């Protein structure tokens, strides 16, 4: 199977989804942001002087998913019906785990929207905390699962 975003001449090409069936499509993605234990405690205790870091990051992640086609040139603009951003603290590794979900009934998948939500969420945490911890590290941005469409169900096996 070739790259769908290239035409026969090798030029950039937005995939034509006109004839694809409308199906329910769901994607889950994740990412992590590592930081100093003191920074993690500051976020967890909502003690940051800029406010509630996770709530701002959650809103940014949702907004990011909605703006995915503005950021990634060949993504289709989508009418998302649900975007969710969740957090869990991993004190042993001094990081915040980010999980996202993007959902719609449409003709193309939502993996890029879920990945964008995870990325923008992590970047927002970094932006809000960089003054106290410039050495934070974002990693492990990945698709965990996708459902719907012709290619069926995919679930990342760890």
From TrEMBL:
Q: Fetch the NCBIfam families from UniProt.
A: moaC (TIGR00581), PRK09364.1 (NF006870)
Matching entries from HAMAP family are given as: MoaC_B
Q: Which organism is it from?
A: Pseudoalteromonas denitrificans DSM 6059
Pfam families in the record, alphabetically?
A: MoaC (PF01967)
In this chain the Molybdopterin cofactor biosynthesis C (MoaC) domain maps to 14-149
Q: Which residues form the active site?
A: 127
Please state the pathway this protein functions in, per its UniProt record. Answer: Cofactor biosynthesis; molybdopterin biosynthesis
Give the top-level enzyme category: lyase
Which reaction(s) does the protein catalyse, per the Swiss-Prot or TrEMBL entry?
Answer: (8S)-3',8-cyclo-7,8-dihydroguanosine 5'-triphosphate = cyclic pyranopterin phosphate + diphosphate
Function of the protein:
Catalyzes the conversion of (8S)-3',8-cyclo-7,8-dihydroguanosine 5'-triphosphate to cyclic pyranopterin monophosphate (cPMP).
Q: How does it assemble?
A: Homohexamer; trimer of dimers.
User: Which range is the signal sequence, renumbered to this chain?
Assistant: none
The UniProt family comment states: Belongs to the MoaC family.
UniProt keyword annotation of Lyase present? yes
Listed under GO biological process in this entry are: Mo-molybdopterin cofactor biosynthetic process
What protein name does the entry list? Answer: Cyclic pyranopterin monophosphate synthase
User: A single GO molecular function, which one?
Assistant: cyclic pyranopterin monophosphate synthase activity
